[in-house]
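The records we work with from here on pair a chain with its fold. These numbers are not coordinates but entries in a learned vocabulary of local backbone shapes. To see the layout at work, look at the sequence and tokens printed below.

. . .
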Amino acid sequence: MNGARIKWLAGPLVIVTMVLGIGVVAQAAKPAEPIFIPPKEKIEAPFTNDKCLKNCHGEPELYSGSATGKKRHIFVDVEGYVFSVHGKKGIWCIDCHHGADPNVHPREGYPKADCRACHSHRDPTSYFPKTALSRIKEKEIEPPRNELLKGDIWNESKHGWAYNNNRVGSPFCSDCHTAHYVRPTDDPASTVHEDNLAETCGSCHQPQVRNYSVGGALARWRLGGHGKGDISESYTNKRCLACHQGQAAHGEE
């Protein structure tokens, strides 16, 4: 009788223990609430590159955590930025990250700067920050005419279509060009230089750029079977844009 009673009590006891255990795990896994990170000293406006970098984004070991628990490296290499196409023109951090007051910098950051705010002919209010183009024009910085078309053309590409339709894993401009170190395509340090395309495109399309994979073998076989966009005799799968000019770049110009 006592043995039966012990068995009867053991069942509910196990269930209660499991429920309590799940509750503890759930509580431990609950993401921390967003907090504000005050600067080490009050930063006075106007907020320029050097002020954004001093004590904050210029520190190599600076990371930030989001409310979801994701860890982000928020260091910006000033030398890399200075030699980028934007740095050379004198564009400031605040020109793209408009409204980012470092004195009340939230852990979640500010809205993602949209490259199309400058690289598009569309209504600038469609992209953040809507004042980007007007701000750089005040500094007498005029984007090259062909650059104004890139965003509009990209919208019609396969990548742009996927991004604009919220497809999971779809790439944005910074995924190929980087966010702060954009360089001309003929610069060997550029992520979209022809010698670096396999690595850049391969971050998503690994099977197609690997010579030893089935995808790589198929890509090389297909290359020899049709005309190429650049009319060259090179059939390597390391020169992605030789064929995928419209699909992989900014659409057909």
